[in-house]
Structures are given as C-alpha cells and as structure tokens.
Amino acid sequence: MRRAPILSTADAVEEAFYDAMQRADLEAMMALWADDEEVVCIHPGHQRLIGLEAIRASWAAIFGNGGVDVRLAEVRVHTGAMVAVHNVIEQVIVEGRGGREVVACVATNVYVKHASGWRILVHHSGMASTEAPAMASGTVLH
Questions:
Q1: Which fold has domain 10-127?
Q2: Looking at residue 27, what is its pLDDT?
Q3: Distance between CA atoms of 10 and 18, rounded to whole angstroms?
Q4: 19, 86, 93, 135: most buried, per Cβ within 10 A?
Q5: Percent of the chain, pLDDT > 70?
C-alpha cells in the first residue's frame, strides 16, 4: 500500500481524488480517504458504503473498466478550520452506442483535517436533475 501523501488543503485532496479517478489508480484513491471506519461513499444510483474496505471494493470494481473521464463544474466550497464541504457538478464522459455523451452528477465531498493533512470523509454523488438549480425560496422539503 502506498504511503498517504500529506495534502495541505481540501482543494488539493479534491484535485488528487479526481485525478486518481481519471487514471483508475486504486492505491492513489484510497490514500486520500480518512483512516476512519465511518468514512462514507455513495456512487450514483447505489447504496451507501461505510468503511474503507467497502469503499475500496467499490472503486476496484469501477476501475476494472478503466478510468472515469470526469470534469468538474459549478464548484461551491465552504472551508472551516477542520472541515471543508465541496458541492460540485461532475460532468462524466461516457461512451455509448450513439457516441460520447456527458452525464451530469451532483456530488458533495466532505474533507476533514488531521495531523497528516486533509482527507476525504464523505463522497456522495447522484444523477443531476435536468432542471435549473433551485435557489433559496422559502419552501424546504427536508
């Protein structure tokens, strides 16, 4: 297992996360996660995965098909002293029968700061709606 890099910002972890995803580099991907059995990963349309073992198995299965061609858009960031939350649109390029297609997913990435630098605590990605994003109005569903 590769030694975890020391990343000084949540932005650096996010860049390394999507880079590992592009390259299908399982060891680089797993080196970015917090060493905490409460880490959570939710892939679009799948159940919640809790713990490093379940998360590793899921990424290994995904990477069995090669890297994920993904680009980020509409990045929203909130950074505190010990926790950072990034909400992004993942533009995933997929090859289909009709050629290349862009599939949009909405992802929330939560990072925590440890003595060894920033690490991923939660990655939650789901299919994006085709509707325009809702802005504050007054009606809250949950």
A1: Nuclear Transport Factor 2; Chain: A, (3.10.450)
A2: 96
A3: 13
A4: 86
A5: 87
